[in-house]
Amino acid sequence: MAGGSGSPGRSVTSRALGVLDAFSSDAPRLSLSEIAERSGTPLTTAHRLLGELTEWGALIRRPDGRYEIGRKLWDLGLLAPVQLELRQVAAPFLQDLHTTIRDTVHLAVREGLSALYVERISGRESVPVVSQVGSRLPLHATGVGKVLLAAAPDDVVEKALAELRPVTRHTVVDRERLVRELAEVRRRRYARTCEEMSPGAASIAVPVQVERPTGPLAVAALGIVVPPHRRDLARMVPALEMAARGIGRALARSMQFH
Amino acid sequence: MAGGSGSPGRSVTSRALGVLDAFSSDAPRLSLSEIAERSGTPLTTAHRLLGELTEWGALIRRPDGRYEIGRKLWDLGLLAPVQLELRQVAAPFLQDLHTTIRDTVHLAVREGLSALYVERISGRESVPVVSQVGSRLPLHATGVGKVLLAAAPDDVVEKALAELRPVTRHTVVDRERLVRELAEVRRRRYARTCEEMSPGAASIAVPVQVERPTGPLAVAALGIVVPPHRRDLARMVPALEMAARGIGRALARSMQFH
DNA sequence: GGACGATCTTCCGCTCAACGGAAGGCCGGC
DNA sequence: GCCGGCCTTCCGTTGAGCGGAAGATCGTCC
User: N or C: which end of chain B has fewer CB within 10 A?
Assistant: First the structure.
């Protein structure tokens, strides 16, 4: 018989969410059937939901046959206080740093076992950079990730060490080696990688710390990506540290008021 | 009597949307009853919807008593192709321009009768700037707005002239004067304002054009905000024009491939 | 040209999940 | 203690969402 029982188990909201979830940076534009398949929603249902989402307020757009994320979601996303304060406070410092060194600069925070990139300024295109604002990478795979991991609580480090999946052929997957690297990051107060994420790109990263009664707390990591043949990589560390200190101080100041 | 018939007239999706819509940049953090009131949803219903939105995938967060836009909406928003190409293509040019002039740089497109700011780099804090990425301002109230209006089709100009609401005490509301200003913008190929939006801020703006078989098409406006006492304002126009031309060419190139 | 396949859209009867008023906590102020 | 906001839980009613089937549309291949 045709006809349905209502949704079997999931609320309407959650299916609409499932439909939205079908979109990802790999697939920002999808056809109806792709969405239905990716979200596990029956085709008819997906069709109706997308219709509502489109009609009812530009959450979803459909300029041609395919569907894409609409303007309203962009608006709403900008309201998200995801590190809103950090981003606002850090922006001018990232600017200055970029002006000085002219390479890609980015800022990341730890979210679980990932580094979440919250801000970024692109440099000359010659250096290939994979991270984008909003993207996540495992903590053990990048410079900023290692800085964040080195500063993370022990249980996070343990969990991270437990699952060292390679992201590229050059990702560090040897536990002993990573432990040694983390110790060195803590000692030198900066991390350095060479072509681990993408060939032709080296990086250095430093922690952004806020002073707390219990000691300094690393709230983010600031990194730059440069061509690996640069000889003066180490010379950039002071500039990075200066910017990081600036952000840390500005953050502490702005947190007093809230 | 107790009990309800289902939702009277609006689909579930649309009420969930209404709830999301309650959030705005004026009020990014709201309590349950505020949301219920703003969205016109019965309190109980709002409560349930927010619960689902929160539980079912971090669309909404609730760190303390109040609700706020969650991380997932931020993620999704970043996928929105709202001028995605324009933003990506323009970013390095805005960078270079900012490095040269060191003041606030921003990029806006026309959306209906508003200028929508899609990208921005802040300059020295001394100059007060109201626009943010994602915000909208009437076309007649700002430099980039006037550039966009000067390049808009006649029917848009007419509609804009029909409702000249003042945004600040210094907004141009005289129709004749605005018409004259627009003519001058077209002739000089740049717009200039002085303390119209906020005291202590002047601006200049130029169109970003793409060559089309039918002639040049203005797709965006590029503007800077500087202190009004600067004497060398006009000298910056060439730099702005150069950046705008660069963006236009890069856009045309990238559009060939799509 | 005509048949086929893939994809999108409309239709419609059957349920059950959403609805929201009422009532029950919770807290802080007077 | 009592009152007034604000939030949360409860529950009977019912219409809104559900999704299979069938129709429409379009491009492709023989």
Answer: N
Q: Which fold has domain A12-78?
A: Arc Repressor Mutant, subunit A (1.10.10)
Cβ-proximal residues to A172 (8 Å cutoff; 6+ apart), any chain: A140, A141, A164, A178, A181, A196
Q: Which two tokens stand for residue B60?
A: 């909404």
Burial class (CB in 10 A: 0-12, 13-18, 19+), A143: buried
Instruction: Give the three-class secondary structure for A220.
Output: strand
Strand order across the A60-61 sheet = A29-30, A67-69, A60-61
Locate CATH 1.10.10.10 in chain B: 12-78
Q: Which of residues 4-63 of A touch strand D (CB under 7 A)?
A: 4-8, 12, 15, 41-42, 44-45, 48-49
What DSSP character marks residue B195? S
B107 touches A at CB < 8 Å: no
Q: ipTM, 2 decimals? A: 0.74
**Digits of tens for pLDDT over chain B (258 positions)?**
333 444 455 778 888 888 998 998 778 889 999 999 998 888 999 999 998 888 877 889 888 888 999 888 888 888 887 677 788 888 889 988 988 888 899 999 998 899 999 988 887 665 667 777 888 899 999 999 999 999 998 999 999 999 898 888 889 889 999 999 999 999 999 999 988 888 888 999 999 998 876 778 899 999 999 888 877 788 899 999 999 999 999 888 765 544
Contact B192, B226 (CB under 8 A): no
Q: In this structure, which topology does domain A81-256 adopt according to CATH?
A: Beta-Lactamase (3.30.450)
| Residue range(s) occupied by CATH 3.30.450.40 in chain A | 81-256
Å from the A104 CA to the D2 C1': 64
Rounded Cα–Cα distance for residues B146 and B152 (Å): 10
Q: Which nucleotides of C are covered by protein (CB under 7 A)?
A: 7-22
The answer to whether some atom of strand C lies closer than 7 Å to the beta carbon of B42 is yes
